[in-house]
Design a protein that fits this description.
By secondary structure, the protein is of the alpha/beta class. The relative contact order is 0.19. The protein binds 2-amino-2-deoxy-6-O-phosphono-alpha-D-glucopyranose. 2-amino-2-deoxy-6-O-phosphono-alpha-D-glucopyranose binds next to loops.
Length: about 250
């Protein structure tokens, strides 16, 4: 692990499995310290290993998630948890159900609300009631998005509806293997909301992300690369990369 100028830490590990287990450790440590912590967790390919490991730990009695509050990060606008292309449905199947998280402790980004703006504000208020985010585990979008905070998202943005970029829509359609059309708008936890988390763990794997990793961690901080704002939070940020994802960095010794 190396500490970077700005105080955040970078850890480059040999394998995807190590990325997954370090991310699972962050969740485990957080709930051991703060059992009723508010936690947000990502969807996508990257966190699958973390979820497998967390479910294993729950079944082995190594972690107690019964009191944690899980706040979802993002969802396509209008999608309900039983829709095919629903990130919420994916999270239930992959993690929330197998880990036995009580329904009362699951907080869903209200992407299907009749009044999304009011519902987004209520979601923020609900998070505040639970003390704000104790932990945010994040993936990195191919265009540098964090959750669905697309390029152009201000670092103080709150939970809201926004348009997805064409590349993000394509990525999403590939993810659902063409089974279904993907809405072109989404609701996302705000970048500002995420940056307030008391611990942020960004996990990235694979050579296809190496260039956006470089831009996010070594490039200028710019609205064009939402992840570049993560570097503002000092020691609250931990970046965990496998060697392939780190291959574009000037210093990968970490
Ligand atoms: C998706 C999600 C993000 C996720 C990112 C990376 O669009 N909205 O929360 O972190 O893209 O996904 P993947 O891990 O599949 O590369």
């Amino acid at each position: 692990m190396t500490e970077q100028a700005g105080g955040w830490s970078l850890r480059v590990v040999d394998s995807y499995d190590e990325v997954a287990s370090i991310a699972a450790d962050a969740v485990t440590e957080t709930v051991a310290r703060v059992p009723d912590a508010a936690i947000t967790l990502p969807t996508g390919s990257t966190p699958i290993g973390m979820y497998e490991e967390l479910v294993r730990r729950v079944r082995a009695g190594e972690i107690d998630l019964n009191h944690a509050h899980i706040f979802t990060l993002d969802e396509y606008l209008g999608q309900r948890p039983d829709d095919v292309a629903s990130l919420t449905r994916w999270l239930f199947e992959t993690f929330l159900t197998p880990a036995g998280i009580p329904d009362t402790n699951i907080h869903l980004v209200p992407a299907a609300a009749d009044d999304p703006e009011a519902a987004a504000a209520a979601y923020e208020a609900d998070l505040a009631v639970h003390g704000g985010l104790e932990l945010a585990v994040l993936g990195l979008g191919p265009n540098g998005h964090i959750a669905f905070n697309e390029p152009g998202s201000p670092p103080d943005s709150r939970t809201r509806v926004l348009d997805l970029e064409p590349g993000t829509i394509r990525q999403s359609e590939e993810y659902w293997k063409g089974d279904t059309a993907v809405p072109h708008r989404a609701m996302t936890l705000g970048l500002g909301t995420i940056l307030e988390a008391r611990r942020i763990v960004l996990i990235v794997s694979g050579a296809s992300k190496s260039e956006i990793v470089r831009a996010s961690l070594e490039g200028p901080q710019t609205l064009d690369v939402p992840a570049s704002w993560l570097r503002n939070v000092g020691s609250r940020l931990e970046v965990v990369l496998d060697r392939a994802a780190a291959s574009g960095l000037s210093d990968t010794a970490g």
